[in-house]
Amino acid sequence: MAETPGNPTPPPAPLPTMSTPGWFVPAFPTGAARASELSIGTVLRKRWLLLLVVPLLLSAAAVAYVVTAPRIYEARVLLAPVTEEELGGVLGSFAGQFRGLAPALGLNLGGGNTMADRAIAVMHSRSFTTEYLRKNDLLPELFPERWDAVAKAWKTREPTIDEMFERFDRDVRFISTDRKNGFTQVSLRLRNRESTVRWAALFVEQVNVRMREQAADEATRNLEYLRRELANDHPIGVQNALFDLVETQIRDKMMASVRHEYAFRVVDPPTLPDSDRFVSPRRALSVALAFVVGLLLAVTIAIFLERRRTI
C-alpha cells in the first residue's frame, strides 16, 4: 500500500517467539523424529556385538543338536507293477471276454483299478500296517523309549493301533509313484542301518503275500459259486461261459499260489546305506538356518532397543 501524508505505513508485525502464546518451536527434534531418522546402518554399527553374539549362539546350539541327535537312515526299494499278461497270459483275455457276464452271476473278476493301485492302497491301510508290525515283531524297535530290552516287556503298555499306524505312517514309511512309467518307490527310515534294509524287504514281501492271499480267497469264492451254478439248468451258451469262467478262476488261484512277486516286481532292492549317508539331521542346513534366524533375531532386537532408547 502506498504511503499517503495522512495515512502512514504501519510497522511490520513482530515474528512469533517461544514466549508468544500458542506458539512453540522446539529447539531439538523429538524422540519420534529421532527414531524416524535412524538408519539400519547406524543401528548395525552401534549394536555390532549383539549382531555377532546372537547368531553365533544359535549356530552353536544347532551344532550341538546335530552332533547329539540320533541319525536317521533310509533304505529304498524300487518296484514295477506286475501286469495281467505276466500273471497268466490268456487269463486276461478270458476275463475280458466274460467281464459283462460276471456281474450278472455275482462274480468279481478284478475290474476297475489295476492290481498296483490296489496294492498301493493296501500299503497305506491301517490293517496292513498293524499286521506287518506285529507279525514281524517290529514294535519294540518302533517304540524304543517304551520297550524294556532287558525284561523283554513294555514299560507301561503296548502301543495302540492308532499309535502304531501314526508313527509308522508319519516317521518311517514313505511311498511315491511315478504315474508316467508306473514305478513305485518305497522308502523306510529308521535309526539302525541294518534295520532299514530288513524292514524294507519285509514290507514288499508282505504286500505281495497280502495280494496273493486276497486273490486266492476271491478265486476260491468265485469257484464255489460257479460250481453251484453249473449244477443248475442253463442254456448251452451260458454253460460254456461258466466253464470258461471256472478255468479263469482256476488260473487265478494257481498264479496266486505259485508266483512270489504277485503285485510288484522288485527292480532295485534295498541296500545298506553308508554310515555317513543319513537323511536326518541335516547338519549344514540346520546350522545355516540357525545362523540366519539368529541374524534376523539380532537385527530385530537391535532396532527395538535403539527405538526404545530414543523415545
Radius of gyration from the alpha-carbon trace, in angstroms = 38 Å
Q: Say what the CATH topology of the largest domain is.
A: Bacterial polysaccharide co-polymerase-like
How much helix, percentage-wise, in residues? Answer: 55-70%
Question: Structural class, please?
Answer: alpha+beta
CATH architecture classification of the largest domain: 2-Layer Sandwich
| Main sheet strand line-up | 4-5-1-6
H/I helix tally: 13
Indicate the mean pLDDT.
Answer: 80
Annotation, overall tally of beta strands? 6
Q: Outline, from the CA principal axes?
A: elongated
Oligomer: single chain
* Cα-to-Cα separation, first versus last residue: 50 Å
What do you see in this structure?
It is a single chain. The strands form 2 sheets. A 4-stranded antiparallel beta sheet has the order 4-5-1-6. The chain has helices spanning 31-37, 40-46, 48-68, 84-88, 91-97, 101-105, 115-124, 126-135, 139-142, 161-172, 193-230, 236-258, 283-310; strands spanning 73-81, 147-148, 153-154, 173-177, 184-190, 264-268. The longest helix has 38 residues, at 193-230. It is 57% helix and 10% strand. Mean pLDDT is 80; it is low at 23-29, 32-37 and 89-99. The protein is elongated, with a radius of gyration of 38 Å. Helix 3 runs antiparallel to helix 13 (283-310), helix 8 crosses helix 10 (161-172) and helix 11 (193-230) runs antiparallel to helix 12 (236-258). It is an alpha+beta fold.
